[in-house]
Amino acid sequence: MALCSSDPDLLIGIDLENLLGSELMRALLRDWAGKLGATPEEQDKMLTGLGDGKRILISIFNQDILAMMVGNIGDLPDTAMPGGLRFTRLSTDVTLLGSQ
Q1: 12-46 burial string, b = 16+ CB within 10 Å, else e?
Q2: Could you read off the pLDDT of 37-96 as tens digits, one per residue?
Q3: pTM of this structure
């Protein structure tokens, strides 16, 4: 996982619990994944994989991304995602997503 700077270029906090029910949010997530090179099938899998997520915190520095997801996240792929992103489950309800 990438170690992002203590002074990131962009820091985002999202309340997924309320937003995942929104069609607009799902469309934005699909668009973001598509720009990273995900196929429509991979986008579907990503949205399903978000499961019952509660919160996500994202830190971006240069081209390194580190995201922490809190909640009951579904099955995660063992292989690298588009853009070289990988998941690491820290506990049953905390998962990291980051660039190598």
Answers
A1: eebebeeebeeeeeeeebbeebeebebeeebbebb
A2: 888 988 887 777 666 778 889 898 887 888 898 988 777 777 777 777 888 889 988 988
A3: 0.60
